[in-house]
Amino acid sequence: MSVEENRNCNCDNVENISENNCCNDNLREEMMEKIKSYNFAIIELALYLDTHPDDEKALCLHKKYCKEYKEVKDKYQKMYGPLTINYPCNKWRWLEEPWPWERGNY
Amino acid sequence: MWTYNKMLEYPINIKCTDPKLAKVIISQYGGPDGELAASLRYLSQRFGMPDQKAKAILNDIGTEELAHLEMVGTIVHQLTKNASIEEIEKAGLAPYYTDHGVDVYPSSAAGVPFTAAYIACKGDPIANLQEDLAAEQKARATYEKLIDLCRDNPDVLDPLKFLRQREVVHFQRFGEALRGVQDKLAEKKFYMNDMKQCNNDCSCN
């Protein structure tokens, strides 16, 4: 991989940000809370839409939350590492702890 | 297929070890009305569903149950992780500890290992969906018993209440799916008359 390509990778540029400090932990927790909220809203709406596929209002909300979910998830992954293995990285940050069962807030 | 999301569906952060609670909560991991049974039941039954709504709801609720399995496993793990041998003995977990240490093993509160006999795939969409409705009610009832037993521990109570609420929502959705299947089965049937033509078109002849 060329140096140029390396420079373009977001997850390397922000590595220093993820070092432990109090304010950063708060921001991480806050962002994860948003991700979880959107994720839950999408699950709930999807189940509802499975049996009410013609409900325009639910469909509209689903669209809105999907967009917001993607935005905050992308931003989070750039800063704190991947949430799925579909997120590309130059350094394999998937191994970084904590895993979901190890710490409650993120 | 599935893609793992490195997060819990609902946050769990248990500050105090309490193996006594883990001993009962494990039932929602690998017990008769637990999340493992729920996910396998729905994800296996979906293959035989006759209409779109029923296929989708079994697929999506089955998937959510996998997230709940992870949540229950997390509760058990956090309640036992740093437990001392004395605490484990006092909680009556010595037999469990002998075979599994503090790993999370799918079994009921009484120690019965998980079995596929907890689920049914009857080859009949109505029978299957009725079983799913009952399964959600039994899981709700189990969570209510666990909520009674965990009344003094807010860190455990909070995710249990969330999980209980999800059973209620799933029950509602399964009811709607069942009505859809019943309507579909009650539809007027149309038959092809020209069976000869039909057979000739079949490439396997």
What does the model show?
The complex is a heterodimer of chains A (106) and B (205). With 106 residues, chain A is mainly alpha-helical. Chain A has one domain. Chain A has four helices and no strands. Chain B has 205 residues and is mainly α. Chain B has helices at residues 19-25, 27-30, 35-45, 52-80, 85-90, 94-100, 125-149, 154-186, 195-200. Chain B is elongated and about 75 Å long. The two termini of chain B are 35 Å apart. Chains A and B meet through helix 3 of A and helix 4 and helix 8 of B.
Residue fraction in strands of chain A: under 5%
Topology, number of strands of chain A: 0
Number of helices of chain A: 4
The portion of residues forming beta strands of chain B comes to under 5%
Per CATH, the class of chain B reads Mainly Alpha
**Which of globular, elongated, flat, extended, rod-shaped describes the shape of chain A?**
elongated
The gross shape of chain B turns out to be elongated
CATH fold naming of chain B: Ferritin
Return the string of H and E elements of chain A: HHHH
Secondary-structure map:
The complex is a heterodimer of chains A (about 110) and B (about 200).
Chain A (H helix, E strand, L loop, with lengths): L2 H6 L1 H4 L8 H30 L4 H25 L26
Helix pairs in contact in A: 3-4
Chain B lengths: L18 H7 L1 H4 L4 H11 L6 H29 L4 H6 L3 H7 L24 H25 L4 H33 L8 H6 L5
Helix pairs in contact in B: 1-4, 3-4, 3-7, 4-8, 7-8
Short descriptors:
A: 106 residues, 0% strand, disordered N terminus, B: 205 residues, mainly alpha, Ferritin, 9 helices
What is the compact description of this entry?
The complex is a heterodimer of chains A (106) and B (205). Chain A has helices spanning 3-8, 10-13, 22-51, 56-80.
